[in-house]
Amino acid sequence: MNEDSAGRLVVTLDLAGVTDKAGLMDRCARDLALPDWFGRNWDALADSLADPSVWPEEAAERGLVLVVRGWREYAEARPDEWSVAEEVFAEATDRGPGLFVTLGPGGSSKEVADQPG
């Protein structure tokens, strides 16, 4: 985990290879280290994202930046679900002080970036 220039903890949610809601929820549970009682549904995700008590310990005091990367495959496979996911991220950001969710690169982290020339 890193921190941004404001001192907030930066956590990456890597969705590479995720193509459905179950995969998204599993990846959220893993990458965000959500508690065992995490319900793996949209409401539970929104509640968990907005609740600093389930964030990594240092993030509760400093704030949390969640960078969602590798999301394009899921967005293309399930556009309606991805739309809900985006709403959940936005709602959690609005509800939880100290949380900022941003979309990073849409492709896999294993892809080579375009090279100039």
UniProtKB/TrEMBL annotation:
Transmembrane segments: none
UniProt cross-references to Pfam families, sorted A to Z: Barstar (PF01337)
Ranges in coiled-coil conformation: none
Domain Barstar (barnase inhibitor): from-to ranges: 10-94
CDD domains (UniProt xref): Barstar_evA4336-like (cd05141)
Family under the similarity heading: Belongs to the barstar family.
UniProt protein name: Barstar family protein
Phylogenetic classification of the source organism: Bacteria, Bacillati, Actinomycetota, Actinomycetes, Kitasatosporales
